[in-house]
Every structure is written in C-alpha cells, then in structure tokens.
Amino acid sequence: MGALVRDPAFNSIPRNSTCFLIWRVENLELVLLKREDYGKFHKGDSYLVFSASEYGKPAGMLDTPHPPRGGLDIHIHFWIGSETSTDEAGVAAIKTVELDDMLGGGPVQHRETEGNESKRFLSYFKNGIRLLSGGVASGLKKTTDGFEPSLYQVKGKRTTVVTELPSISWSFMNDGDVYVLDTKETIYVWTGRCSNNIEKLQGAKFAGTLKQEHGGANILIIEDGRESLMMGKERNVFESHLPLNNKMVIPAHEAPKDENVARRISGELKLYRCSDEGGTLKVVEVKTGPLSQSDLKSNDSYIVDNGSQGIWVWVGKKASKKEREEALRNAQGFISKKGYPLNTQVSRIIDNGEPAEFKTLFKDWKDKDQSKGFGRQYSTSKIAHTVQTKFDASTLHGAPQLAAKTKMVDDGSGQKEVWRVKDFELIPVPEDQLGQFFMGDCYIVLYAYLEGNKEHYLLYYWIGNDASQDEAGTAALKAVELDDKLHGRAIQIRVTQEKEPPHFMAVFGGKMVVFKGGYASAFDGEGARDMGKKSSYMLQVRGTTNHNTKATEVDMRAGCLNSNDCFIVVTPQLSYIWCGKGSTGDEREMAKTLASQNGETIIVSEGHEKADFWKALGGKEAYASSPKLQEDTPMHPPRLFQCSNASGVFKAEEIINFAQADLVEDDVMLLDAWDTIFLWLGHNSNKKEQMAAETLALEYLRTDPAGRHKGTPIVKLKQGFEPPNFTGHFGVWDNDLWN
C-alpha cells in the first residue's frame, strides 16, 4: 500500500511553530477559513480546528505564530453542526485522523458537537462563538448571499455563545436572556428582565461586532417592558419584526435550561480496557475511581468514562496503529452501547501526551520529566529555601508568584491572638500557651501583618480531629463574627488537624504542639490538660524547617516510634529525646526546646537505647524503621471553577486558561491549588451562595474524581481583598480591574 498522500490544505501549518487554524468542509474538501470568519460556525457545516500552543500557555485565535520555547501542545477538534450532512461529518473525522497521522499520532483529538462544545474549544474564542443558520452548497442549506434580518440569542458569562434563531418571533424569546435583532441599519439589543449583567454587556459587544461588519449602524438598547418608549422609525422597524401587541415571552423559570448534571464523585468514574479482537470492539471494566496513573498500561488502550462530563480514550504508546486511528470510532460505539447522548464529548489522547484536564481525573498523575521529591522532605524544594530566609511581607506582595508557590503571605512574625472554643464561647489563650492545641477542641487565630502602611488580617479557625460538630460550627460562626467586626476585611481560612498550611505553622515559629484531650473530648472529661499538669506523655516531632516543625502527642509505647522522626518521652522524673536515624536537625532542635521545659533531659540516639528508656515506654516493641523512600510527588496546576448549587444540584464549571477577568463579580469562584482551596466571593454574588461557600468547597472536594482529602485547607476571601498567594496564580494582576 502506498504512502498516505498529504492533503494540500495542511500545507498552511508552519513547522515547529505555534499556530491556530480553522478549515470548513466544502464540497467534501477542506477549505481554510479567513481570519475574520474564525468563531463563526454554520449549523449545516462541519469544521476542523487546529491548535498548537506552548505547553502551559493559553491558546487562541488571536495568537501570533512563533517558535515555542518548549514543546508544542497540539489539539485537533472536529466540529459537527446539527444540520450537517453525514458525508461532511465523515470528511471532518477522516481528515482529523489524516492530520494526526501526518503529525506522528501525538496530538489530542476531540469530537465537538454544536451546543455541547468542550471548555477547551470555547477557550480559544475570547469573544465567543457564533452559531449561524445554513451551510455551504454541499450541505442541507445554502448560506444566503444577500442580507436578511436575523434574531440572535446571547448566552454565557465568560465564553459567549451567540445562536442565530430559526426565525424572528417573540415565541423564541424568554426574559432570562439577551437577544439581538439585526436589521442592518439599526441593531436592537433586547435585555430580558431576568438576564444577568454579563450577558447584557456581551449583547452590547456583539451588536458592536455586527455594526463593524456592516460598516456602520445604529445600536439601540431596549429593556424588557420598556419597548413602548421607542419613537418614530426605530419603533416602526422593530415592530415590523416583533409586533408589541403580539409580545409573549417565556418566563425565565420555564425556559429550557442547561442540563443539571452533578459532578461525578471519584467512585463513579470508571476505567475500561479496550480490545479489537476479530474486528469486534470488546470493552472490559477494569475498576471504578479514584483512578491512579499506574492503572494505564502502555500495551493497551483504555476508556475513561466520566459520564456526561465526557469520554476519554487513552492509547498506550505500544498500542497498534489501527487502535490509534480507530480510537474515536470505538468511543462512539461505547457511547451508543451505554445509551449516552450522541453529543457526549469525546477526546482521544496518546500515552505521554495527556492534557491537563485529563490528568486531573487521576489522584496521583506525575509527568515523566517532572522532578522528584524525597518523601516528606519534598516540601523543602518548594518551601524551605524561601521560608528559611527572613520574609519581607512587601516583597511577597510585590512577587505574588513566589507567594503562590510558597503558600506564604509573610514570615509569620506579625501579631496574633488565639481563642479556644468552650461552651459556644471564645476563651482567650494565655500568652505562655500560644502554640498549644488540643485534639478535642477548636481554636480561632487572628493574625495581622503590615504591607507598607496597609494592615491585612487572616482569620484561621482550627478544628481538632476529636472536636465535636457543635464546636466546629461555633468556630466557623465566631470567625464570621470577628470578620464582621473587622468590616469584612479578613480572609477566613478553615484548617483541620494534620492539614495545617505552611503559613499557619510559621505563625507559631516551629513551636506548635498538639495534645490529646480537650474541653469536650472523651479523652479528658475534666477539662483541658496543660503541659505542666501532664506527668507522662510522648510527642512525635516532624518538620523540614524551623518554621514548619510540629509536635503531636501519640500513644506512649515503643510501637509508636518511627526512625524518620524525633520523639519526646516525658516522665515524672525526666524527659528523653529519642532521635531517629532519619530525623532532621530542625526536628532535633524543636525537641530540645520543648523538652527543656520539663527539667532534666537525656538525648537518646536510635540503636543506643538503655533499659530505663524502654521501661518508660512499657517495654520494647517493633516500630516503623524503614527509611523514607524517594517518592514521586505529583504536581497539580491550579484550576478555576464557577461553583453553584442554586438548582439543587452541585455544579462546578471549569474555566480553561483562566485569567483575572474570569473572576466575575456575580459569582462565587473556586480556585483549586490542590493543597489549598480558595473561595472568592464576588461583590454581586448570590448571598445564599456566599453563606454556603464553605459547603460548596467541601462538596467540591467530595466530588473531585481524583479523590481528595476532606481536610484540605479552605480559604474564603472577598473581592478586593486578595492575598498574594492567591493573585500569584493569575499571572498579571490588575488591582484597578474592578474600579
């Protein structure tokens, strides 16, 4: 069989360069679109969209081609209109395979259908997409050469989708959206009484685009219910298309809504292995989520079933050429077999060429060229080198990317006040007990620091593992009350035991101790037990720097020792500091400091214990003595979501290639930085969703397909009070954007 002939249409793709191109299928051949037509899609046509961008950088139609500094992230999308012919859709699919083959089989392939486009596809078009009626001559309808008045529906807060309606009639309109009536001389923007501000703005912008295309026109904004205020010719033209005496629009609550689909929890995600024995597709279920990267074997092909969120076909690098070429066809067969909607999003990816949105479905994805960490010391490369240096708060505010990377806003040397929850009230913690926590209690820490002449506030509320629900609820409520006293200027941060963020640890300067017991704890019904009142106990000391070292009480027995840490064994007579072979210098220093508060101290090195030490622990026992092995620590890029439960179903809509402008004032936004969840409350966001923001964050963690720890710190902040460890995830940050 001869070599595959290269389609001349692909000659427009530059070698080793970023690039964004769109072809339309015309007369069963690919024809390159003019740049001014990018973003316009006819329902009667099929298209091929090619995107080659630098890894980790946004892609889009406005980018100027240039050689990449690193590798190219290549995606091929074929888009199928609702009225396209079967032949045209087939050509788009075949040409996708041809282009993929020409590029060595590495690009990610996506099947897009009208009205159900992927977030990545929509992210290319910063001014939105326009869905137009008709198609080229080979399709079902012909595009009209002459001008005909049209009615458009404008939807979407970020990426606008403008849809040309079948005809101009009130019956197609509802009062929850914005509509644009284009008569060429005058462009009318009709705003439904329940439409949101963003859609109104997008409607006006779209009218401006039409005006530019016509070479000039009048634009008239009409509010629902105030149409009678129009005068003269403008009113006559409007009524010739939409007579006011026939006005009858659909109420927003009755209008068709986007399907409400709950985010899948990790247990609902499914992995299937594919085989094509004897020419018949066979799909075998391998497991349900959470999924691990190690579940994918390079010899095979797999389907990751994320239901209504889309189907992914992963092709191992040792899979056959036939498997690679027919992956999308097999996925279509899988969709039919499962009874999923035909417009379900489908993407095909190749081993070692996975996009970010695929990796996030796995709890432990690690790229092959990603640097490795060393057990718990992995944080050293991310935090310690910066934290060990004396911080200057103004430096971090001026370098938000560094603040985001280190998860710090300053060095923790600001002012702090600490309260302990007791009987639904806050009891101040004495100065000499700052840094002491009890597992059965909840605490509030108010931290203040200066940046120039401006004071900033952080309100941490810490929840012990054994604290009651009442205490946890009281801590959250009291944090809100304290924030109100500060006129809403504080950033509220939910912290759970064992998941303390670096800055929280730094506030206590490496002297944080967590004891068993507490006011309401079953360990201690008679009230709190302070260090001085406890005659015998054992503390495990862990940390990589003098800022993040912490001591936690464990059972006083030899079986709880661990070669990788230091332990303080306190008895009525003296204290022992047991230093494991893998312990760090900072752990040993903290252990000495804490033990010195209890009188005589004896340092014991692992392997050189005497009989009195084992006697204090109740005798010798086996304990964890294996050294911490070098382990792969996955890196997780930040992700931005607009979250809502207004419909009664939790929805998290991801914004691909996000920027500060995607933080819309009407919304509650969630920034997932993996080991911290940020909740951003827009000025005009729904008050009920503001109040339920923490619940939204917990629901997000619960439903993350990657399987997340419910104790991940949650930071709640208001628009206009963003700290540098938040703004650093957005690239360029403009403090005047919302003014």
Automatic annotation (TrEMBL):
Tell me the keywords, alphabetical order. Actin capping, Actin-binding, Repeat
What CDD domains does this protein map onto? gelsolin_S1_like, gelsolin_S3_like, gelsolin_S4_like, gelsolin_S5_like, gelsolin_S6_like
Which part of the chain is the Gelsolin-like domain? Answer: 35-122, 161-228, 283-359, 433-505, 548-597, 651-726
Q: Name one Pfam family in it.
A: Gelsolin
Q: Which terms in the Gene Ontology molecular function aspect does this entry carry?
A: actin filament binding; phosphatidylinositol-4,5-bisphosphate binding
- Extract the InterPro entries matched here: ADF-H/Gelsolin-like_dom_sf, Gelsolin-like_dom, Villin/Gelsolin
One GO BP annotation of this record: barbed-end actin filament capping
Under which name does UniProt file this protein? Answer: Gelsolin-like domain-containing protein
Instruction: Look up and give the organism this protein is from.
Output: Halocaridina rubra
